[in-house]
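To assess whether ligand presence alters the predicted conformation, the chain was also submitted together with guanosine-5'-diphosphate. Input:
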Amino acid sequence: MNLKDYGFPAQNYSIDTEGTYARVTAVHKGNYSLVTEYGECTAKLKSSVYFNNCTEEFPTTGDFVEIQYNTEGESLIIKTLKRKSKFARNDLSGHGSEYVKTIKEQTVAANFDYVFIMQSLNHDLNLKRLERYLTLSWQSGAVPVVVLTKSDLIEDYSAQLASVKQIAIGVDVHAISAKTGYGIDGLADYFKKGKTVVFLGSSGAGKSSLVNALAGQKVMSVKEIREDDSKGRHTTTHRQLIRLDSGVMVIDTPGMRELGMWNVSEGLRESFSDVKQFLGRCKFSDCKHQSEPGCAIKMAIEDGNLAYERWESYLTLKKEAAFVDDKATYLRSKDHQQITMKVWERQKSKETRRTNDDKH
Ligand code: GDP
Ligand code: ZN
């Protein structure tokens, strides 16, 4: 097997490597499923690289890694290669010993080319959620694509399509039906050999059904739901990278709902370019965009050049992101304080012991 078939970029090959290259296809608590040029294998992290001083980023689904390949049994992951895109969330759990407990970014999917933001055209369609997904997707470094599913259930969805297009600025929007095959051909441009696509969307949105429709066979299980109340949703427990016969990789992402608005300034700039174009144009550089004269935002809204809802969404997401960022800073400093206290206590007890020893 050639790792290039799994999207490994040729420029990443280095003759200096001590290891073998591999791609992570799934992560189950400290166990990694990998593909290598020798085929599939399982691996664990090499402690001296990942735990002792914690410099190496923990690998995740989609990552390219270097491993010490073991023909007999479990291999060891020795390096996480640089990512071209990623989804990350706040990880407050900490890894390893309590002394290295820090607030880290936990990466949940990596090295994808496109993000398919999926919502169904019937009751799942939610513009606020879409704005959030668009921001996160732009932030990831990949290209977002909006895929509206189950078009066969709605006779006329032109109004929905128009409202989605209004907020998905600079993003392709597709209406499809995995059931009838409608619109699937229109996705061919993204499904090129060696590309990786992440599917983002609520359970029941039709992600597995689309993967199956694209694969032309059942590669993912679809649990039937009743469309009237969405009962019977399935729960997939881990993220998985699947390679279709066409040479396209798909990462299904259950649990993406937990992704918080963290560190998304880049994403906001892209997803709210309609808002951003007016920022910095107010008469006063410190304009609060409330009642100041010469406020470019207020004027744009009054003139109908900017939808008020967009301004509102932008403020909400920005505020949320700032809060999350601050909370992380706050917890980090609190953590730091606790660590300092612990080290101090240890030193003190050592000294006490030494003093006691001296006495004897
Ligand atoms: P996932 O949770 O996002 O992977 O969603 P699934 O692919 O499992 O689909 C959830 C439900 O939606 C199932 O009952 C599917 O049969 C149904 N479904 C998926 N795609 C379509 C479609 O294009 N049309 C219709 N009518 N139902 C669909
Ligand atoms: Zn202003």
